[in-house]
From TrEMBL:
<dbReference type="InterPro" id="IPR026992">
    <property type="entry name" value="DIOX_N"/>
</dbReference>
<dbReference type="GO" id="GO:0046872">
    <property type="term" value="F:metal ion binding"/>
</dbReference>
<dbReference type="InterPro" id="IPR027443">
    <property type="entry name" value="IPNS-like_sf"/>
</dbReference>
<keyword id="KW-0479">Metal-binding</keyword>
<protein>
    <submittedName>
        <fullName>Ethylene-forming enzyme</fullName>
    </submittedName>
</protein>
<dbReference type="GO" id="GO:0044283">
    <property type="term" value="P:small molecule biosynthetic process"/>
</dbReference>
<dbReference type="InterPro" id="IPR044861">
    <property type="entry name" value="IPNS-like_FE2OG_OXY"/>
</dbReference>
<dbReference type="GO" id="GO:0016491">
    <property type="term" value="F:oxidoreductase activity"/>
</dbReference>
<dbReference type="InterPro" id="IPR005123">
    <property type="entry name" value="Oxoglu/Fe-dep_dioxygenase_dom"/>
</dbReference>
<feature type="domain" description="Fe2OG dioxygenase">
    <location>
        <begin position="243"/>
        <end position="365"/>
    </location>
</feature>
<dbReference type="InterPro" id="IPR050231">
    <property type="entry name" value="Iron_ascorbate_oxido_reductase"/>
</dbReference>
<dbReference type="Pfam" id="PF14226">
    <property type="entry name" value="DIOX_N"/>
</dbReference>
<dbReference type="Pfam" id="PF03171">
    <property type="entry name" value="2OG-FeII_Oxy"/>
</dbReference>
<comment type="similarity">
    <text>Belongs to the iron/ascorbate-dependent oxidoreductase family.</text>
</comment>
<keyword id="KW-0408">Iron</keyword>
<keyword id="KW-0560">Oxidoreductase</keyword>
Length: 438
């Protein structure tokens, strides 16, 4: 195998999704750790025979550790995903194409991939996680003042966020584009545009450094996705010039007794995210669940809310914490652009027996972008929709989602009171990279 492939990486192995009803066994094919694999090679095929035979046996000690991290009150299969290593730059080589194709296959199969953190990413994540813990340990009065009435940045108290009419117990600090009040877009009262109300430099500096590194990773992932889909370079990345990237710094309290009890609250209810990619890191306390792509489950969050989708149904996959990786799921705009060839990943978060910390970075189109489906995806496997359609204005989609999630937030109330929403239909709001003149 290695003699015909130009580049290689160590593959960390793949966990099988078993067909068992409650908890899957977690199985590693023997001898696969440390094997040199090419960029883009999906280890699933190599492991298939071994996995089928081993799934009949008792769970390994690794399996038990992974399953034990699942929050109480849930029945789900346990995933063990491929871990891919990204190149430092995407240049369109044969290895890049293979990696792009492997990522697309994994997203179409599992709805999620794992990306190995570099040493630099690991260090930045540790710094960001420490800053997160320090912020959330502050007194409520100190956190509560970190709110801006023009942007949706800042502190969100446990229970303030609403998903499908039910309070989420997650405690959040949202980081959006940090715009000075003198910025022309802020002075023109563009919806969602304003400062990020940082509590102090001790939180701001590590978060900014980590977000910048994730932005670069997001661009490489989109470039690889273009190669994997067989579309022209720039088909996706042209929308992220001046991208409206944002981050949610998350703490989940140990209130696991409410799991599965509806209006008594939960970590975060079932939903899909708004943009292109969600790159996340989590600590060693589990909580994330996803649904795999399924042609029988049709949804389009830009047309009808997907909040609460299949919340209490079977079929959820638990994603256990793995040290040294980012997980990457897809958002609404990736689904829209690819004509459902890739679909947004429904996910939810359960509360565990210990507090849990995570960080989710959203790699988004420009606020001013008007997106239209690609003419063809993956060598013409699916044709684009009508070229006459209006497309989706990302700023409107983003604003709609935040207004829905935070109906009582001061930002929503001011946006409505000052009639800022009507600005979303103006021409200057729909020009890539445009801003009002000073």
């Amino acid at each position: 195998m290695q003699s015909i492939l130009p580049r290689s990486i160590p593959v960390l192995g793949r966990q099988a999704l078993s067909g068992k009803a409650m908890l899957s066994t977690v199985t590693h094919g023997p001898g696969l750790f440390g094997i040199a694999m090419p960029f883009g090679f999906n280890a699933k095929t190599a492991q298939l025979t071994t996995l089928k035979s081993r799934e009949r046996g008792p769970p390994s000690s690794i399996d038990g550790c992974l399953a034990k991290t699942m929050p109480p009150g849930f029945k789900a299969q346990v995933a063990n995903l491929d871990t891919f290593k990204l190149p430092e730059r995407v240049t369109g080589t044969a290895g890049d194409v293979k990696l792009g194709q492997a990522l697309v296959r994994a997203w179409r199969q599992d709805g999620i991939v794992q990306i190995a953190m570099s040493d630099k990413h690991m260090s930045l994540w540790q710094d960001a996680k420490l800053a997160s813990r320090q912020f959330f340990r502050k007194q409520h009065s100190e956190k509560a003042v970190c709110v801006d009435s023009q942007s949706y940045a800042g502190y969100i108290a446990s229970g303030e966020e609403v998903t499908d009419g039910i309070a989420d117990y997650s405690e959040i600090f949202t980081i959006t584009r940090d715009l000075d009040p003198s910025d022309p877009r802020v002075r023109a009262k563009w919806p969602c545009h304003g400062p990020c109300p940082w509590p102090d430099v001790d939180m701001k500096e590590p978060m900014v450094r980590y977000n910048e590194s994730l932005g670069a990773e997001g661009e490489r992932l989109l470039q690889l996705a273009e190669l994997g889909l067989g579309v022209s370079p720039g088909s996706l990345t042209r929308y992220t010039r001046d991208g409206w990237h944002h981050t949610r710094v998350l703490r989940f309290p140990p209130r696991n007794a409410t799991n599965g009890k509806g209006k008594e609250g939960r970590g975060i209810g079932s939903h899909t995210d708004y943009g292109l990619l969600v790159i996340s890191a989590q600590d060693d306390v589990g909580g994330l669940f996803v649904r795999r792509p399924d042609q029988r489950e049709r949804f389009a969050n830009w047309e009808k809310s997907a909040a609460g989708l299949k919340e209490d149904d079977d079929g959820w996959i638990y994603i256990p914490p793995v040290e040294g990786v980012h997980t990457v799921i897809l958002g609404d705009m990736m689904q829209y652009l690819t004509n459902d060839f890739l679909t947004a990943t429904p996910h939810k978060v359960g509360l565990n027996t210990r507090e849990r910390f995570a960080l989710a970075y959203f790699h988004e189109p420009s606020f001013q972008a008007v997106l239209k489906p690609l003419d063809k995806v993956s060598g013409g496997m699916r044709l684009g929709r009508s070229k006459e359609q209006e497309g989706i204005h990302y700023g409107t989609h983003f604003t709609n989602m935040f207004m829905r999630n935070y109906p009582d937030r001061v930002t929503t109330k001011r946006l409505i009171a000052e009639d800022r929403y009507c600005l979303l239909s103006t021409p200057e709001m729909r020009t890539m990279g445009a801003a009002p003149a000073s």
